[in-house]
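Researcher: I'd like a candidate sequence for this fold, 230 residues long. If you have to choose between options at a position, lean toward the conservative one.
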């Protein structure tokens, strides 16, 4: 099968909706590749800091995005380790500070354009599960199945708080809630690739659903579309 014909399932939505967990589980279950597109924006923000590039210097950031030396080392277990210029940045990648910087670089059209080919290169047989904000609308508009996973801002702040605590980070619930609202607003209002469901996306509100419950719905959709081997 030519790489550009490999099937794609897109999982878009705001941060904290659980799309990272769901898309990773789904990729593992199907034995497909996984693209964490948010990690690319986060990596670019980290690289910018390391190379002293301002977060609004679109031209230099786009250049940096094209040359970004990144490796995803999947050890078959949980979240893959991420190497930037040979250095393990997995932990640094997930901090609030990196997320906020990523949101700023992601608002620049030149940066989004520079990362397009890189993201599309993840599409390889037997298939790809792509996690992000604009996977179904811009990067893979011809995807076989598009899911838009969302949850209330309160629930996302609660989940983020729990996750950070487990990783050993301290965070105030109020500050997280405000950050989430501010980032939602920025991601939804930006001129390029604003966060919105594709017209043909299936929207799942996960506010009151467990991971297992969301997975059960997703599995049913995957079967319905004939994307499963059995
Ligand atoms: O999903 P995340 O929190 O790792 O994403 C980090 C930032 O990158 C977030 O502010 C939104 C942005 N992003 C984007 O604009 N488009 C994507 N496909 C993925 C992430």
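Model: Candidate sequence:
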């Amino acid at each position: 099968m030519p790489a550009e014909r490999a099937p794609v399932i897109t999982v878009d939505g705001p941060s904290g909706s659980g799309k990272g967990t769901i898309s990773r589980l789904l990729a593992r279950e199907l034995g497909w590749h996984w693209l964490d597109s948010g990690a690319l924006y986060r990596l670019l923000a980290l690289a910018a800091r390391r190379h002293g590039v301002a977060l609004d210097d679109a031209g230099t950031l786009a250049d940096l995005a094209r040359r970004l030396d990144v490796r995803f080392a999947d050890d078959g277990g949980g979240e893959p380790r991420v190497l930037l210029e040979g250095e393990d940045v997995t932990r640094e990648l997930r901090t609030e500070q990196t997320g906020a910087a990523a949101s700023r670089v992601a608002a620049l059209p030149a940066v989004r354009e520079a990362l397009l080919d890189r993201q599309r290169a993840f599409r390889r047989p037997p298939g790809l599960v792509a996690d992000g904000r604009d996977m179904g609308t811009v990067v893979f508009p011809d995807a076989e199945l598009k899911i838009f996973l969302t949850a209330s801002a309160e629930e996302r702040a609660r989940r983020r708080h729990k996750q950070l605590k487990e990783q050993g980070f301290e965070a105030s619930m109020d500050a997280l809630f405000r950050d989430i609202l501010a980032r939602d607003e920025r991601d939804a209002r930006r001129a390029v690739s604003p966060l919105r469901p594709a017209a043909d996306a299936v929207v799942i509100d996960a506010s009151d659903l467990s991971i297992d419950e969301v997975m059960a719905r997703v599995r049913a959709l995957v079967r319905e579309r004939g994307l499963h081997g059995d």
